[in-house]
Amino acid sequence: MFAYNRSIGERSFDWLNALLMIGLCVVTLYPFYNIVITSFNDPTDAARGGITLWPRQFSIDNYKMVFQDEGIIRAFIVTIARTVIGTATAVLFTAAFAYGVSKNELMGRKAFLLMAIFTMYFSGGIIPYYLLVAKYLHLKGSFLAYIIPNLFNVFNAIIMLTFFKGLPKEIEESAKIDGANELRIFWQLVLPVSKPVLATVALYNAVFHWNSWYDAMLFGSEKLVTLQQILMQIISSNSNVSLAASNLGLGSVTAASLKLATMVITTVPIVLTYPFVQKYFVQGVMIGSVKG
Amino acid sequence: MRSRQAAPGRSFAKRFWLQRYLMLLTLPAVAWMIVFNYIPMYGIVIAFQEYTPFQGFLHSPWIGLANFRELFNDPTFTQSLSNTFKISIAKLVFGFPAPILLALLLNELVYKRFKRIVQSLTYLPHFVSWVLVVGFMYTLLDPDTGVITRMLETLGLIGPDTMLMGDEKAFLPLVVFTEVWKNIGWNSIIYLAAIAGIDPQLYEAGVMDGANRFQRIWHITLPALKPTIVILLILSIGGLINSNFDQMYLMQNSMTQDAANVLSVYSYEMGLVLGRFSYGTAVGVFQSVVAFILMYAANYGSRKLTKESLF
């Protein structure tokens, strides 16, 4: 920046602004903090309320209970599986398309791109989509219902396309002269130098899979319950405390603490990886906005 | 270059064969789009049918606009239509300017490191699910133990044992607040990027001319943001008829149903919970048509008023 004398008015604005921003951060983070400290408090004591800044009676009973719950452990495994498999397959599938249409010589390139962009503005809506996946493709109750319908994403394809277009052509051309075909070039040359964009798109996919509950509700089965779906069931039964006991076969105190600990364990992976991956998320928005 | 010059002389099959590896990379996703995007698009024909899964969308009987006629005579539909607009307009009025304001304030921060920390922290809620956000709400707004409930009680703003999550009057403010809470930071990125692109010489000239901070924001920063604001506003207006399904579905409960019933939830409940596939699809078709009209009108208005437009 440049130097100039700040008047008293400007300086007090600076202070007020900084205070406001600190306030915003507190409002943003406090819900996370409150859940964590309450989850580490003794459940019976927590039912008295008033836990605001730190646990009153420290205890890890809530977590013991969560990790004894077979349903939650199963959901954890299902969610990790769909996040890992779903992300890996979607990144490759989308990258392959983006690489193909990044080549000007591709026949039908314009038509393929137009087809993809059209889907950003028009869709058939949820009911035809449900009928397709459940009744015609018979994916209901199958783990593949989490993977196949999410293989491709237009926004991610555009982010990747922009990146591939910016790659230097020389390396690919010399590989071609050496007799390598496009499959090998894509796999051995292009993908290794595209790590930043692959990381960005992988993160978007991973967050989507980790947070998913809606497709699990539509297409899942008892064996394929995801973490967020379990959390949703606990929360909605908790909204009616009397219902909680009957639905889960638990007392309301237990249901409430189960909820807190489950909320923490579903969120910890996101919050822990977040500081390291944040810059990749922002890169995606930047590329996307340049195009849009 | 060589291949392009030679291309017209080659047959389609030969050209295709030369690109077989590129096609192998591209065509699977094209097939995917046909199956998962274009077949469901054709599937909206069931809004004009009496669809039964047994007959499928090829053989179900056509009934014209009967589903739509029933729709407009259904008081639950009218209610969900008015709720949808009420909630969307409230979100637009409060939620649209919020990230712009945040970007302007962040840009005025003196310490750039502090600015980066605030940015990173405010992006975080964007990455957690609505399930978690609604979980936060039930916990913090619990009538007995909720921290926020107790605070509001102490301040005398609400009576004892108020269950805010079950209060129809609190529903709209809570929807707007959580929406802003979740997305204000993330949505500010695009404005911050636009601000970063402004020529610093403009500000220096502003200082020379004796413009104060507020005048510089008003005469330099905001005009530079105008194209971004207009484009995003057009998109938001097009989205007025669509509500955030995750948020609305998860926040509603038996006590707030009348305030929370919006079109996307209504369509889901009619179509997929009650199995009235055709009727639910009709709601979706209605939404798409209105969204298109709104977006077109917003674009037209903007082109006349501000010379900026999306298409």
UniProtKB/TrEMBL annotation, chain A:
Domain ABC transmembrane type-1: 76-271
Keywords noted in UniProt: Cell membrane, Membrane, Transmembrane, Transmembrane helix, Transport
Mode of membrane association: Multi-pass membrane protein
Keyword Transport: yes
InterPro entries recorded: MetI-like, MetI-like_sf
Any single Gene Ontology cellular-component annotation: plasma membrane
Segments crossing the lipid bilayer: 12-33, 72-99, 111-131, 143-164, 185-207, 256-277
GO biological process: transmembrane transport
Main location: membrane
Subcellular location: Cell membrane
Matches recorded under PANTHER family: ABC TRANSPORTER PERMEASE PROTEIN MG189-RELATED-RELATED, POLYGALACTURONAN_RHAMNOGALACTURONAN TRANSPORT SYSTEM PERMEASE PROTEIN YTCP
Similarity annotation: Belongs to the binding-protein-dependent transport system permease family.
Name the record gives this protein: Putative aldouronate transport system permease protein
Organism expressing this protein natively: Paenibacillus methanolicus
From TrEMBL, chain B:
Stretches that traverse the bilayer: 21-48, 89-111, 123-141, 184-203, 224-245, 277-298
All residue ranges annotated as the ABC transmembrane type-1 domain in the record: 81-298
Compartments, record wording: Cell membrane
Keywords tagged on the record: Cell membrane, Membrane, Transmembrane, Transmembrane helix, Transport
Record carries keyword Nucleotidyltransferase: no
This protein's GO CC annotations: plasma membrane
Membrane topology type: Multi-pass membrane protein
InterPro entries reported for this sequence: MetI-like, MetI-like_sf, UgpAE/MalFG_permease
BP term (GO), one: transmembrane transport
Gene3D superfamilies registered for this protein in UniProt: MetI-like (1.10.3720.10)
Similarity annotation: Belongs to the binding-protein-dependent transport system permease family.
PANTHER family (alphabetical): BLL4140 PROTEIN
Protein known as: Putative aldouronate transport system permease protein
Biological source species: Paenibacillus methanolicus
